[in-house]
User: What shape does this take?
Amino acid sequence: MTRQFARIQTELPGPKAKELLERRHAAVPHGSGYGVPTFAESAKGALIKDVDGNQFIDFAGAIGVINVGHSHDEIVNALHDQVDKFIHTGFNVMMYDSYIELSERIAALAPGSFDKKVMFFNSGAEAVENAVKIAKKYTGRKSIVSFSGGFHGRTLMGMSLTGKIHPYKYEYGPFAPEIYHAPFPYHYRRPEEMSKKAYNDFVLKQIENFFITEVDPKLVAAFVMEPVQGESGFIVPDKEFVQGVYDLCKKHGILFIADEIQTGFGRTGKYFAMEHYGVEPDLITISKSMAAGIPISGVIGREEVMDSANAGELGGTYNGSPLGCRAGLAVLDVMENENLNERAENIGETVLKHFEKMYDRFEVIGDYRGLGAMCALEFVEDRNTKEPAKKVTGQVLQAAHKRGLIALKAGMHDNVVRLLMPLVITDEQLEEGLTILEEAIEEVMAEVKA
Ligand SMILES: Cc1ncc(COP(=O)(O)O)c(C=O)c1O
Assistant: This one.
């Protein structure tokens, strides 16, 4: 197929990237990983050019940061305007109006028919950390429950809440105390004889038993749940399960924290993925796509919960920076003006149609799934045993990169390809990217058979 967008004119890495890679390996520790062995030169919309002139279609969006596309004019203009006025005064020293406006607009969009307040931080992990602090302060309780397979960041609290050992926790203990991991339904891997409903009931029952065997619910400040588990391979729970957990929280006076860091800002076809489940989280953490690449995060919550901390107990030097707030306001304008929630839904439909075709063609695909434009393919050695095909997944991604498509790995067993393309991607770019993904699978499967 002739390519209109993905143009790879050197081997990967190209000559300039090779030189930079050598310097990178000498100067930057291994702990910071990378997906594609090259370096960005420029990016616009859903396309990234590297330093050797290769052009890629971006199905990764910096891991879900770039829903409004790379360097959207409205974001760039807002940032230029802010830089010309002032860069930083510190919201905890001299305040600025963009912080207030962003809080108001985000509170108005977030689910929950109650008064809300919003506070900003820098990174996703920091938002999670603060949501936990707020929940502890409000409830006076010390224990937190998160879910196996969940991901909440790399700080001590984020890592402690995370329910995946490699590469996030191994050899980094001891972890923060009083954190418990509850089971999370993974429908593709549920016992075959169980119906969806029976499985949801079973996992909910396990959580009730968990209150007998692991932690008394009276001691639990909050449950922290991703509406769709991201790092673990886009595992989408059923509404019944999410509502069941929410009801348990209400029954025991436990706060429900939705970690929307990867799912938020249009990814699933809604501003907040929790809207799909009809629950009203007490606290919501946000980051990533809220500011199109400018580091900022936030906690949204019930007014009385958010107000439980005293002045100075929450915050930090760079929290809710002027650049982050201006970018955040521009993101909301773009989402509204360009109907990005609706666009996410039709991207998701197109992707799932292609995935269905790929599933019919390639036995190695065990499952395909998604919510809005948060779609993934799960690779298995055998459709009956569902043994994870980790090696093939890595090979498919490499073959895609060589053809000019950037996509990401995920999954509890590292056997999932997840797609987080900018929602401003054109239909033609989307089609070309999906064709490349299919060709990459075809190439790898031909090699495996040979
Ligand atoms: C659901 C979720 N929570 C928390 C985080 C941590 O965010 P950060 O990497 O900005 O600290 C991430 C990052 O991938 C995430 O996906």
About this structure: The chain has two domains: 74-337, 352-393+400-413. Residues 63, 123-125, 128, 151-153, 158, 226, 230, 259, 261-262, 287 surround pyridoxal-5'-phosphate (CB under 6 Å).
